[in-house]
């Protein structure tokens, strides 16, 4: 009979192939706290009958202070607080000062973890924001992901009306005329606004930099798109529920360039699961003219003007832009000077 040490060694040796087979899945399991959060959020459902205005969840993904919080405070007027919620994922490894409640609407700070460019951490942060918003308020229907460099191009009232295709009179005085029989119609609110590109010239090199993706993501299914988007509640639940594609995308890239996981994961996932439920168009305007090192054009103070705002709103599709990036901190003062008369004037 084999001795106990020899039997143990033989058992471990015979188990090695099995452990190697499972190792990618074991290594790719999300952190326990994230996994619990995502499971709870995936089960969260919206009310079957809306007796209140549907809300937009604004998700701020930031690794620095919200420089433009005074501008956003003009966007988030207290009189429209029944139309929105604010969620912030602030990188805990970076200095961050919470905007004073007197200068910025109450916000929900979600449990956060460090983020880094060209890594899956930005995907994880966006998923935490989506999960927190799903759990917090069942009236959150649209989920708009933004950064500290984003600015609004219209008022909140215009933004809400545009997304839900409802006339402002349907909800402007809702708090004063609440009725349990009131049902808000959202005729086109079943579509997500996320850029999905299948013919991008850099797609082959991005796919190669991504690393082994088969069999879950063949090259024919690989997509690229903008980092920032607006998802419906249904698609937000699809994102936090996903483990199959996440087990691939959460692995480190083979090379940091040109691999930007957050620009790949969301377009690829939604394109594979529900392409007809997405417009393929983002509502956040970004200027890639003269971009460098993967960064878009950075607007500076001398560029800020009413003409710039009007130009940023325009698009070559049937949609208008609701937000824009990327703006330097020095842009705050000139933006505030034109906020009332240009940006928030419907």
Automatic annotation (TrEMBL):
Which top-rank group of organisms is this from? Eukaryota
Indicate where this protein resides in the cell. Membrane
User: What GO molecular function terms would the record report?
Assistant: glycosyltransferase activity
Membrane topology label: Single-pass type II membrane protein
UniProt signal peptide? 1-28
Q: Which UniProt keywords apply?
A: Glycoprotein, Glycosyltransferase, Membrane, Signal, Transferase
InterPro entries with a match to the protein in the record: BC10-like, Glyco_trans_14
By its UniProt entry, which PANTHER family does this protein fall under?
CORE-2/I-BRANCHING BETA-1,6-N-ACETYLGLUCOSAMINYLTRANSFERASE FAMILY PROTEIN-RELATED (PTHR31042), CORE-2_I-BRANCHING BETA-1,6-N-ACETYLGLUCOSAMINYLTRANSFERASE FAMILY PROTEIN (PTHR31042:SF108)
Tell me what this protein is called. Core-2/I-branching beta-1,6-N-acetylglucosaminyltransferase family protein
């Amino acid at each position: 009979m084999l001795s106990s040490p020899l039997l143990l060694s033989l058992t471990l040796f015979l188990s090695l192939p099995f452990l190697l087979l499972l190792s990618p899945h074991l290594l790719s399991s999300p952190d326990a706290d994230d996994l619990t959060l995502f499971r709870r959020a995936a089960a969260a459902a919206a009310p079957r009958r809306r007796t209140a205005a549907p809300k937009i969840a604004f998700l701020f993904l930031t690794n620095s202070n919200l420089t433009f919080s005074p501008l956003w405070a003009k966007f988030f007027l207290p009189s429209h607080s029944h139309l929105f919620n604010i969620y912030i994922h602030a990188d805990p490894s970076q200095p961050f000062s919470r905007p004073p409640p007197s200068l910025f609407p109450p916000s929900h700070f979600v449990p956060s973890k460090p983020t880094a460019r060209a890594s899956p951490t930005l995907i994880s942060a966006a998923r935490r924001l989506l999960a927190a918003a799903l759990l917090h308020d069942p009236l959150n229907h649209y989920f708009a992901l933004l950064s500290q460099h984003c600015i609004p191009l219209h008022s909140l009232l215009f933004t809400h009306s545009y997304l839900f295709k409802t006339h402002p009179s349907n909800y402007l005085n809702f708090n004063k005329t609440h009725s349990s029989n009131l049902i808000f119609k959202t005729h086109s609110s079943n579509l997500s606004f996320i850029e999905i590109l299948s013919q991008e010239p850099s797609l082959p090199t991005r796919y190669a930099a991504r690393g082994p993706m088969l069999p879950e993501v063949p090259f024919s299914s690989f997509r690229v798109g903008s980092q920032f988007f607006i998802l419906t509640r249904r698609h937000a639940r699809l994102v936090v529920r996903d483990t199959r594609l996440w087990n691939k995308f959460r692995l480190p890239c083979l090379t940091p360039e040109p691999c930007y996981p957050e620009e790949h994961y969301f377009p690829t996932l939604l394109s594979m699961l529900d392409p007809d439920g997405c417009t393929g168009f983002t509502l956040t305007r970004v200027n890639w003219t003269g971009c460098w090192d993967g960064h878009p054009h950075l607007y500076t103070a001398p560029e800020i003007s009413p003409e710039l705002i009007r130009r940023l709103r325009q698009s070559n599709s049937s949609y208008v832009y609701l937000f824009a990036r990327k703006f330097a901190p020095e842009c705050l003062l000139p933006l505030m000077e034109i906020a009332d008369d240009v940006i928030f004037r419907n």
